[in-house]
Each structure stands twice: as structure tokens, then as C-alpha cells.
């Protein structure tokens, strides 16, 4: 187990335990279609796209987060070389992060929308087809209904621009009670609620970003996931929760590497995703202070061992 105050030595001991099974890339998981995805920023690692691709290849990842800003800087020949390198490393694109502030005032939203076509075109040019973002689980001024209407209207605009470029939009709910109960007006914080929002948006290129942490803190089970199809899921995050902390007291910014504690039932979570044929990226998102102190290569290696251990739960 690794907690916020864990020593560096303790962290490496925990990582060694995670990797003890010696799970090789792909071993025992032939039936799965989802990819082990690297998002360096989730681990506290700063890396440009070529560096991220090199780290992903070295440590056995199968996809990597696309970077629209990097794509936009490349001439056609340079992009072709990048895509050849991606192919040579047997990597695919995961999901990019949405670069539009739809949660704040109208000025910020409109500024983001003005830049969105170029962002979407850069992704399309490189063959990346997935974008994700998260929904703030509360507001101190807007009621649930007013907030719901604004989210539906704004995200419908976002989805149209992305969809015109062949890019799907994923929406992530934030589950911890410590997050949604801190606002005057709690907002979307369950899978059922985010699916209501998606239905209101009314586009078949909008789906969910699933997160094992939010699934767990929302009190959900595999049954809640079984109503989804592969098309409903755009991206997925994997993590574990600190032990000895009641679920309603878990805090969003304090997590563990996947399969570090066993608090979250990742076998049920991943098995259900495999059963629906999910074929998108699954990335570690531990938000862990100790992990963020490590050199880039060590942090990525630790995440890779944790992810391989988790995928091995599929049998």
C-alpha cells in the first residue's frame, strides 16, 4: 500500500510487489481490445510527443495520448515521419484533452470555440479520433437544471465541431462525495446522470469517459456498466484508492496506482469493459504525490507495471 505520506523506499517496495507477477505485454489478455495507454501528464511527467512515444514503446504501452498542438507545428512530411514512427512502435492514438473552457463565463467559452476547429483539424490530420473532458460536480450559483441546460447547449456545440472532423467527445463524471457535496448546488456525479446529459446533447458521437475511481466513489457496480456498448465509451482511466479511508471520505486528488491496494474492484471493472468489446484507451491516472517525485522513466515504468498487473486480472 502507498499513502500520501509514504516514503520513497516504501513506494519502490509497493511498486516491486505490483510487478512481482512478471506480467509480459499482452500475456493472458488476448481477448481484450482496449489498449494500455500512456498519458505522461497523469503521472506528473513532462514530455513532448516524440518522448512520450519513446517511453510508451520502451515500457510496453500500446497507445499514447495525441497532441494537437504538436501536430499543428508539423509539415506534411514531418507528420508522415511521426506516423511511421507510431506504426513502427506498434502504438495507436489514445484520447486528447478538450481545449475549451465550457465551465466558466461565456467569453472564455467563445474564445475556446474560436480555436476548436483548428484543434479538431490537427487531430483529424493525424488520425486521432477521441477527445475527453470532465464535468465539474457542483456549482455555487447555478441550480442543477440551469447548469444541465448550459452544459447540454455548450457541449452540443463542441461535439458538432469535433464531429465534423471525425472526432468523438467523451464526458467524465466526478464521483467523490467530498467533491460534489462541497458546492451549494451539487451537479452530475454518477454514470446515470452523465448519460442523461449525453442523451440531451443528442449526438451519437458523444459518449462517456469512464474512471474506475469515480465508478467506485459513486457507489456503482459492474451492473451499472453492463448497459453500455463499446460505442458509448470514449476513454477510460484506471487507478486505485487509499486503504482504510471510507468511500465517502475519499478525496479526488489522493489516489493510488492501479492494483496498488485492491480497494477498487478492477477485475469487475475491466472484465465488464472487455465483455462489451471496449476497444479504446485505458490510462493510469493516480494523482499520486510520491509518483510525481520520480524521474520520468521510473514513473512511467511504475505505471506500466501497475497497468500490466491490472490487465492480468482479465485472465
Automatic annotation (TrEMBL):
Gene3D superfamilies associated with the record: Divalent-metal-dependent TIM barrel enzymes (3.20.20.150)
Domain of life: Bacteria
Pfam families reported in the protein's UniProt record: AP_endonuc_2
GO molecular function: isomerase activity
Keywords: Isomerase
Residue stretches making up the Xylose isomerase-like TIM barrel domain: 54-308
InterPro entries: IolE/XylAMocC-like, TAT_signal, Xyl_isomerase-like_sf, Xyl_isomerase-like_TIM-brl
PANTHER family in alphabetical order: HYDROXYPYRUVATE ISOMERASE (PTHR12110), XYLOSE ISOMERASE-LIKE TIM BARREL DOMAIN-CONTAINING PROTEIN (PTHR12110:SF21)
Protein name: Sugar phosphate isomerase/epimerase
Amino acid at each position: 500500500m502507498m499513502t500520501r505520506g509514504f516514503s520513497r523506499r516504501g513506494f519502490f517496495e509497493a511498486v516491486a510487489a505490483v510487478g512481482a507477477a512478471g506480467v509480459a505485454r499482452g500475456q493472458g489478455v488476448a481477448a481484450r481490445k482496449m489498449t494500455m495507454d500512456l498519458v505522461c501528464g497523469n503521472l506528473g511527467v513532462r514530455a513532448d510527443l516524440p518522448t512520450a512515444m519513446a517511453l510508451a514503446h520502451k515500457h510496453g504501452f500500446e497507445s499514447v495520448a495525441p497532441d494537437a498542438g504538436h501536430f499543428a507545428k508539423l509539415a506534411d512530411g514531418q507528420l508522415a515521419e511521426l506516423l511511421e514512427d507510431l506504426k513502427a512502435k506498434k502504438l495507436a492514438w489514445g484520447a486528447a484533452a478538450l481545449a475549451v473552457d465550457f465551465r466558466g463565463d461565456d467569453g472564455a467559452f467563445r474564445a475556446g470555440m474560436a480555436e476548436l476547429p483548428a484543434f479538431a483539424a490537427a487531430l483529424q490530420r493525424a488520425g486521432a479520433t477521441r477527445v475527453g473532458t470532465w464535468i465539474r460536480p457542483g456549482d455555487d450559483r447555478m441550480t442543477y437544471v440551469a447548469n444541465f441546460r448550459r452544459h447540454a447547449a455548450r457541449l452540443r456545440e463542441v461535439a458538432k465541431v469535433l464531429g465534423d472532423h471525425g472526432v468523438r467527445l467523451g464526458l467524465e463524471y466526478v464521483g467523490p462525495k467530498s467533491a460534489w457535496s462541497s458546492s451549494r448546488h451539487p451537479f452530475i456525479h454518477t454514470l446515470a446522470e452523465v448519460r442523461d446529459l449525453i442523451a440531451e446533447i443528442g449526438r451519437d458521437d458523444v459518449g462517456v469517459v469512464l474512471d474506475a475511481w469515480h465508478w467506485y466513489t459513486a457507489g456503482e457496480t459492474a451492473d451499472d456498466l453492463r448497459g453500455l456498448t463499446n460505442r458509448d465509451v470514449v476513454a477510460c482511466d484506471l487507478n486505485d484508492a487509499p486503504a482504510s479511508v471510507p468511500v465517502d471520505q475519499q478525496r479526488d486528488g489522493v489516489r493510488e496506482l492501479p492494483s496498488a491496494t485492491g480497494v477498487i474492484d478492477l477485475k469487475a471493472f475491466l472484465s465488464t469493459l472487455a465483455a462489451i468489446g471496449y476497444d479504446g484507451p485505458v490510462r493510469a491516472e493516480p494523482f499520486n504525490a510520491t509518483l510525481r517525485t520520480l524521474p520520468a522513466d521510473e514513473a512511467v515504468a511504475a505505471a506500466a507495471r501497475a497497468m500490466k498487473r491490472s490487465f492480468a486480472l482479465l485472465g
